[in-house]
Amino acid sequence: MVINSKGSAKVAHRLPFKIHRELKSILDDKTIEVTKLGSGDLMIELKLNNQAKRLGAIVTFLDIPVSVSPHKSLNSSKGVIRSCDLQCCSEEEMVEELSSVTQTRRIKVCQS
């Protein structure tokens, strides 16, 4: 999850002790991973879904207005599905039918 600052004050510029104490009070866990991003936001690695719900519900963090959202690229993966049975299936149909798939792209292979 990423804690994004809404105003000019950045959450990552607060004292690390205050950040840790605030996260501990929200998440009830000492062993979370926190990374300061170059944008001044905080990336929080969570272990449990209920932690994500609790963190997602906050609107201020250390008196700074924030929004909390999943990280855009770390919560996804890429893969290749190779199947002759899907040749007649459109890319849109694959996205609809495969759970948690957000994008497909057909790769054409030239055989010589």
Write structural notes for this entry:
The chain is an alpha+beta fold and 112 residues long. The chain has a domain at 2-69. The protein has helices spanning 16-27, 49-56, 91-97; strands at 2-5, 33-36, 42-45, 60-61, 64-69. The chain has a 5-stranded antiparallel β-sheet with strand order 2-3-1-5-4, with no helix packed on it.
Taken from the alpha-carbon principal axes, the silhouette is elongated
What would you call the quaternary organization?
A: single chain
- The total of beta strands comes to 5
- Strand percentage lies at 15-25%
Structural class: alpha+beta
What's the N-to-C terminus distance?
47 Å
Count of runs of 4 or more consecutive helical residues? 3
The description of the largest β-sheet is: 5 strands, antiparallel
What is the spatial order of strands in the main beta sheet?
2-3-1-5-4
- Mean pLDDT across all amino acids: 84
Q: H/E series, N to C?
A: EHEEHEEH
Q: Which residues form runs of ≥5 with pLDDT under 50?
A: none
GO molecular function: RNA-directed DNA polymerase activity
Keywords: Nucleotidyltransferase, RNA-directed DNA polymerase, Transferase
Protein name: RNA-directed DNA polymerase from mobile element jockey
